[in-house]
Amino acid sequence: MAASMVPAGYEASLDRAGLALGAGGVVGGLFAAVLVSIGSGFDPFPMLIGFLLGAVITAMAAVAIGGPIWIVCHALGRRGPWMAVSVGALAGFALFLGGQTYGFGIFAMPPGDAQTLLYRWMSAIATSLILAAVAALIGWTMWRVAYRRVG
Predict the structure, then answer these.
(1) Of 142, 138, 136, 139, which is closest to residue 18 (Cα–Cα)?
(2) pLDDT in tens, 85-134
(3) Are 9 and 77 in contact (CB under 8 A)?
(4) Quick one: which of 32, 37, 66, 132 is 20 to 30 A from 93 by CA?
């Protein structure tokens, strides 16, 4: 097939994928540092610790949760920026919602929480939406670093 007949798409390389993981970690680390500064004031050492922990945890979550989903998207040819944003947002939303609702109700909760279950879910959905926006930004950042247009 002639080169002009190949449909336009996106491709990544292993080195850019590694750089993308680092870039996603940096975005997550910056978000964590901002949260630390909101909670404890502008103090460089706790912010640095928050940044480092946030970066490492973000990179681990990207590999463990986003990675398998993205491998399927990549194999199906769904490699565009909107797919990266969607995967980041949906994976982030599900992760944070499950974390705040005792694994979507699968795990046992303290007896006192039964009285406030509706409020727990409402709060979990609201905060998960905010964190999904951050996860979407992380997904877009990683996509932007990893992929280049071909064709």
Answers:
(1) 142
(2) 999 999 999 999 999 998 998 998 888 777 888 898 999 999 999 999 99
(3) yes
(4) 37
Alpha-carbon distance of 45 to 64, in angstroms, equals 29
Tens digit of each residue's pLDDT (9 = 90 or more) over 42-74? 999 999 999 999 999 999 999 999 999 999 998
- Interatomic CA distance for residues 56 and 58, integer angstroms: 5
Which residue pairs, CB below 8 angstroms and at least 24 apart, start in 70-77?
Answer: 74/12, 77/9
